[in-house]
Amino acid sequence: MNSNEIVLITGGTGMIAQRVSRLLENSGYEVRFLSRNKKSEKHFLWDINTGFIDTNVFNHLDHIVHLAGADISEKRWSKQRKKEILDSRIKSTQLLFNAIKKHTNQLKTFVATSAVGYYGTSTKDVLFTEESPNGHDFLAHVCKLWEDEADLFSTFNNTRVVKLRFGVVLDSNGGAFAKMKKPITMGFGAVLGNGQQYIPWIHIEDLCNLLLFTIENDELSGVFNAVAPQQITNEQLTYLIAEKLHKTIWLPKAPSFVLKFIFGELSSIILKGNRVSCQKLILSKFAFKYPAIDQALDHLLEK
Ligand SMILES: NC(=O)c1ccc[n+]([C@@H]2O[C@H](COP(=O)([O-])OP(=O)(O)OC[C@H]3O[C@@H](n4cnc5c(N)ncnc54)[C@H](OP(=O)(O)O)[C@@H]3O)[C@@H](O)[C@H]2O)c1
């Protein structure tokens, strides 16, 4: 435990930011947030559109976990929304980097939080590892540019850069899991598309433990897939959640063309998927608390 070290988390109101900040504080760290709204004395303001940043946030800073980014599933991907998704990640990283260079002498760790969307989607039985090339769809493009910007930090006074490619983060309080659970609970759950698309996933507790592990483990650097070992398809997950909730899936599969019509290009995040390996993380001695979906769901649904 490194008490007294200071961690800056960007996107302070976010689902992961809230959860990981509690873990870090309980582990002895001081946590600060960069946020668009000042909610408490721990929150420092920034505005990526005007380039404003409250530089007091950098005093004696040790680590940054960069979580800020416009929600990819909130709205249809209009040209404007795509720009917002991209800018909130790329411009924010540039803003942070320029401010760090100007206002600090040292930063121990920069943790970039990318996504397995980096690889694009695949309907084939390909298993993506950290060595796999980036894909060519919109999200793959966003992740690639985001990670390239994060690399800037490795040019700054030996800052250690770790780039985590998150799978879908399962949390009982929000995010994708709440969206999957709701229709099933109401008796209107359905498999999406042909249901064969893989959903790389990770339990929120494992993700937060991984962020702490990343900060504390000086030997860790480079890219890591942040996904659980067990791979599962949309169909398997839908039926498993229904079984745990004692519900029946009686509706037919939701046809892809209908979802495409309703959600446009955004539908790709539910209709397409990929299989992703966490072998590198396991070799780095990270221990999952919830390696299997069965235990993860039991825990998420018990609350
Ligand atoms: N959750 C997942 O399943 C998942 C999977 C893969 C990758 N990720 C990545 O992990 C990061 C955190 O995920 P999360 O689920 O915690 O996301 P979240 O709940 O949507 O939080 C992201 C935070 O980013 C800030 N933000 C939103 N729009 C912004 C904008 N236009 N400009 C600047 N800041 C903005 C907000 O914080 P303030 O209001 O405090 O400014 C927001 O609360 C995201 O970048 C996401 O892409 C998440």
Structure described in brief:
37% of the residues lie in helices and 17% in strands. It has 303 residues and is an alpha/beta fold. The chain has one domain: 3-Layer(aba) Sandwich (Rossmann fold), CATH 3.40.50.
Provide structural commentary.
The protein is of the alpha/beta class and 303 residues long. The chain has a single domain, classed as 3-Layer(aba) Sandwich (Rossmann fold). 37% of the residues lie in helices and 17% in strands. The protein has ten helices and twelve strands. The strands form three sheets. It has an eight-stranded mixed β-sheet, with helices on both faces. Strands 7-12 form a two-stranded parallel sheet. The chain has a two-stranded parallel ribbon with strand order 9-10. It is globular. The chain starts with 5 loop residues before the first strand and ends with a helix. The mean pLDDT is 95. The structure holds NADP nicotinamide-adenine-dinucleotide phosphate (NAP). NADP nicotinamide-adenine-dinucleotide phosphate binds next to helix 1, helix 2, strand 6, strand 9 and helix 4.
